[in-house]
Amino acid sequence: MTMKAMMRERYGSPAVIESREVDMPKPEDEEVLVRVRAASVNRFDWYSLTGTPWIARPMTGLRGPKSSLFGADFAGTIESVGAAVTDLQAGDEVYGCRDGAYAEFVQAKAGVALKPANLTFEEAACVPMAGLTALQGLRDHGKLETGQHVLVNGASGGVGTFAVQIAKALGAEVTAVCSTRNVELARSLGADHVIDYTREDFTRGEARFDVVLDIAGSRSWRELKRVLQPEARVIPIGGPKKNRLLGPLPHMAGTRLKAIRSSRTVMFFVAKITREDLNALRELIEDGKVKPVVEKRFALSELPEALRLMGEGHARGKLVISV
Ligand SMILES: NC(=O)c1ccc[n+]([C@@H]2O[C@H](COP(=O)([O-])OP(=O)(O)OC[C@H]3O[C@@H](n4cnc5c(N)ncnc54)[C@H](OP(=O)(O)O)[C@@H]3O)[C@@H](O)[C@H]2O)c1
Question: How far is the CA of 177 from the centre of ligand 1 (A)?
Fold first, then answer.
């Protein structure tokens, strides 16, 4: 049996992506086979398309991608379950994250959970990677508590739009930093204060923050520390993208090193894709506290165009692919 998949045999621009008929995945006993109805685009997919930053290549493949299939976030319907799967069944509507999501079928294990009942497949596919990063960044690494003041720098993209809503759901006072065209969006997501970074420098303001989720990574430690409470926690999520060798790593590691002798904590992490946290996100979504923001929808064949837009670095919310 074959399926249609978007793939690339070598690293490059979106022009290297091809639509092909390939063998269907064969799930193991602990896995489920999902008929993908929608997938979403993450910065991560841009990295695995272009093979940048180079430092990630020992994992993704040195000279070319180890796997020609790619894509991560998906939502769809379970087609079949392996012999050892007892908690999911054929017909269940699910969402999750697993390599190879830009295809008609994907196999998945721990990174799959029942989809929020109040979302379409397209909306649900937007949630996993960005939503888990925002949740784990604020709750586990930021240790955000009710009443604390959090700054979300880069509030209008995939991770940021979830972070503003999750921070509000955790009871925080939220300041969102974004550009002019996204100010109204950030307000509509519940931000208490919105700073337009093209007009105002948040590191020169009066407010002091307990937690900073630094998605944009646009400010140096010297600038950032001016607006931190003495015990603040700073969670760098992303950073400048011009360094093709090391990506945002020098910025993130530099921030951590410079903060070592300070009373503040700087903690970076890679999001864990777990069913437990997909279930936590489902609860927040079904309670009406969090809703994905979709900027634009594309057909599977239009994936190169969606990735080109992602590569420009100014996505508003999420870009979604209907499969
Ligand atoms: N650690 C992890 O596990 C993990 C997981 C997911 C993502 N990430 C990283 O997180 C970063 C963001 O991911 P994403 O999915 O949210 O990206 P995205 O959807 O492309 O969003 C980027 C956003 O950044 C904003 N932005 C750009 N320059 C800015 C600046 N100087 N100040 C404030 N905002 C600015 C843009 O808004 P404007 O158009 O308004 O400028 C855009 O909305 C990436 O570097 C990604 O690699 C890390």
Answer: 11
